Amino acid sequence: VQKTPLLEYDVTFPYVVSFYHIAQNRFPLVDIDNSIHSWSRAIPTEEATFATHPEYFAMIGGKRVLTGGGAQAQYCISNPEVQEILYKDMETLFKKGYREVGLGQPDGFRGCECESCKQLFSTGSDWGEKVWILHRNLAERAYKAFPDRIVTISAYSITETLPKTFTSFPPNVRLALCGTRD
Fold it and tell me: How many C-beta atoms surround the C-beta of residue 157 within 10 A?
C-alpha cells in the first residue's frame, strides 16, 4: 500500500504574500481557509457580543467570562446555538467558494464549567474528547451538505491526543498537526 500525502503551499502565518513569496513560488491559497482557531471568527469576541449573548461564553469560576485567562475567548460548547454558529461559519465559507475550511478551538483552551458542558457527550472531564466529538459532528454535517469540500481539524493543545471514543472521521476531514508530538 502506498499513500502520498497532500502538500499545500504557502500555509504560513500570518497569511501574507509579498514579492518574496511569489519569487519562491509560494502563491496564496485563495480557496483555503487554514484557520487553526476558527471559533473566535465564528463568534466575535467583542464586548457587544458578550453583552447580548453571555451564554455563548464559558462559565469559569461560577460566572460567564469573555476571556478564560488566555488571549482568546472561551466558549460554552454545549450550547446548541454555539454549535450552530460554528457550523454556519464553515457553511458561509463553503458557499463563498472555499474548498477547505479550518476548524479549531481557541488558544489557551479552558472548558466551560456549566452543568450542560460537564455532561456533554458523556465524556466526564475529558475536554479533548468533547472537542473531538464536537468537531467530528460538525464535519459530518458539512460532509452531507458539501461532500466535495474539506474540513481541516486542528490537532492542537487540548486535542493533541487522538480521540478515544471513535476511530475514524468522515471522508472530508484532514487533520492539521499543530505542534503535536509523535
Answer: 19
